[in-house]
Protein 1
Amino acid sequence: MPGVTALVLNRARTRMLAVRRADDGEWTPVTGIIDPGEEPARAAVREVAEEAMISCRVLRLLDVRTLPPITYPNGDRAQYLDLCFLCEADGGATPFPADGENTAARWFPIDAPPPMNERFTRQLSLALEDHAETRFRR
């Protein structure tokens, strides 16, 4: 299934947006599934608005990777192709966990992000590099 990760930074690039997932309590950038027929960059912007009540714009595609298969508690299985976008927040709004998928949403200093897994840590480091190229895992 196609999915997106939206790595949202403030305009000054001093803070990043993260949400605390309701299912496992982990801090992550905003993630979500692309709706049928939806443009991936629009999906990233939509997910950020739905999950954190933040308006943003996509700057570029950072990273493309296939995620490991996952089995949900109800037995459903899925595997995602993740398109990670670097996004910039439109303003200084206060994030809010708006859709029930997350228990918290907040800005973190870029030099003190929340604890995140290797995937999200790597994507954050890509966002902070001064390279325009998208990264592909080989």
Protein 2
Amino acid sequence: MFWERKLENWVDHIRENAALPLRLQLWNGQRFDFGKQAPKVTVTVPHVSSLPFLLKPTLANLGRAYVEGKLLVEGRAKEVIAVANALAAHTLKRETRPGFIGNPFSHTRRRDADAIQYHYDVSNAFYQLWLDPNMVYSCAYFETGEEDLATAQVAKIDHILNKIQVRPGDTLLDIGCGWGALAIRAAQEYSARVTGVTLSANQHALATERVREAGLDGRVEIRLQDYRDVEGEFDRITSVGMFEHVGIRNLAQYFGKINALLKPDGLAMNHGITTTDVGNGETPYGGGEFIDTYVFPQGELPHVSLVLKAMQEGGLEPLDVENLRRHYARTCSIWADNFEARADEILQTVDEKRFRIWRVYLAGCAYAFNKDWISLNQIVCGKAGREAGALPWSRRYMYR
């Protein structure tokens, strides 16, 4: 049969080029092992109609087949991701990655709100099972790499607040405030007056409750609000893991809004994921396509060079840039391990499909950050054109 010859040729090609800890099982009982060692990953093809997903193993195809139950997969998520990438690498040509600018998403308030709610309003209980106790859903900061996640997440918040020199009495706007961890710490430890905004109803509800429990009513306000609708002026502004939702074509306007909200002597921090493709393209082998479809609808990652350009166009001067790619690889790795360890509990909060999406997403992100496909940059900025001296001469002040 045609499919039998095609599959055998594909199997022979993979075996000749890579020794993978993979076992392939077909609906008819036929079995193929791809390495001499015991397989760590087993893929079962339940029907001949599922073969196209395997014979053209883009990460989008493999991810879709797993999520939709077209391929049955056994093995630890990190090992599954490593095998999937090896299959893609040894089957597909690594073509030029298409840039988002050629096919941008349309970002309206309604679409942006829907995208945020799809991703973040899964349920608070779901996120609590694999995040740290403060539920910080962004790159942690490791002084040595040996810290536990909770310690590293507090260190990340302090690293941000120290970088922008938050002082007692400062007004601070936190755009995309999540479940309120940064806002609460800025008020408790730095004596700031904080406004946090989010488009997630679940985040807003729990962050508001946490503010109340911490006795910070009157010092921290959490709003269910689009950042474009915020008014006033603030001494300090933070945006952590939010600008990925803005859209590449809207970056200059986004930074322009931050500029408009920032006091003349103020400082802001943009902490966000960037692509390492200079054409602002997707990750190799279709990984970005999977994320667009199942994880982050409307998400767009710019290259850091475009971020700096858009920041200047928005009237802001970049003052300090730090690449934390290694830190996010470590963070995602811990999240993926937490997810695996508490799989049974997580399945009590979401359906099987959502569980599969997040399982491969977290392990896939750890892989992508580790391989330098995507990165994480913290950029401190202030209003362009003001006199020099906004920051100390040395970066030592950030590590007090």
Protein 3
Amino acid sequence: MCLEAQRKEERQRMPLKLLPVRTAGKCYFQSLLLHLVPVLLLLPLSRPASASTVVTHLPGFDGALPFNLETGYVGVEEETGAELFYYFVESERSPGTDPVLLWLTGGPRCSVIMGLAFEIGPLKFVLAPYSGGLPELVYNPYSWTQMANILLLDSPVGSGFSYARDPKGYNVGDHSSSSQVQTFLNKWFTDHPQYLSNPFYIGGDSYAGKVIPLIAQGISEGIDIGKQPIINLKGYMVGNPITDPKFDENYKIPSAHGFGIISDQIYETAVKICNGDYINPVNEKCVEVLHTINNLISEISIEHILYKKCDVVAPNTIYDTSKRKFLLEESIQLNKPPAQPTVDCFTYGYYLAYFWMNNNLTRNSLGIKEGTTSEWIQCNVGLPYTYEIPSSIPYHLNLTTRGYRTLVYSGDHDLEAPFLGTQAWIRSLNFSIVDEWRAWHVSGQAAGLSIYISLFQM
């Protein structure tokens, strides 16, 4: 999952939600609609962190920003000089008391500008035909900053404007990148102690959903041993999360059948000869039918099956697998722009972001260090990354049994992390159901399903 597509252009349509609340030795999961509860998360801004920049104006945005924005770098590994870049948007409601939300983007190694300008942040690009110059930005009145302080982080190293002085610093994986996020938070809160008492949440989608429970568990363990600063962790949220191939991959085929992408005949053949395991085919006939299915799926937009299949705004490869060495010089040279999609493509905004982020006026406004990231790329897919966590389910189970609040939401048109798989791994936790799956409504119309689940503490 190299391309981190716009994970739901309309975040109001996310059906599956879980929110546990601790009560008298029990943990009750409450279902909430994401678009009705951007209040779930939150955080404020005060004095800037070291090496930070207070941003009052942005190129392409008319006038002063109607919200408080801080950007900056935080060192997370002294040996390689790795530094993570962040955007901190203060809550537009009550920054002193609203929760702090750390937001991560998946990929891995997609820029968190996706969260800032395409998902939950206060900015959005004007989707007009691009003829050169600086793309325009406008205010997003539906930003989660209406009720939360949001700390958006380019992680792991190599995402967005995060960088390392030593090329070895880019060779990370699930565990090392999660540890670096914890280091970042410890330093950021040390520089921003006024936010330590605010409720703290971690959120993200797609592949970020795989590592968020690991990061939350690391913070929780630090709290247990009294590691300073004590972060006021309350819970986490994951959207269309990559979780476990047993569920994510195996449920793609029944989902594709339900969406009408594959026929009854093809689906029934796959069920019969693959014995429900579509990850490790055990016979040649299974291999053949899976090849047919994959060819059909490749013809649609897997991130949102109703979207037009568009050009992928992707970078050139910057990791030479034949020489097995990191090509630092090539990675920071400005290459030819990505292919231009049509304006009606969901990737068109990413195309505009490429030119905006690579403009010197933008770099100066954001406080980007010279010589660190010569070319901003939406998803740095060519860098080495070690996928070390086969399943994040044990982390979900551990955190929820300890009483942390959890929200799981899943859009119904994502075939990369299909909601059928999300429902299945939730069932595998064997929690007691308080209220069966039921429809939730928007403007009197059924828009999805929600469920209440309870967990009795040991």
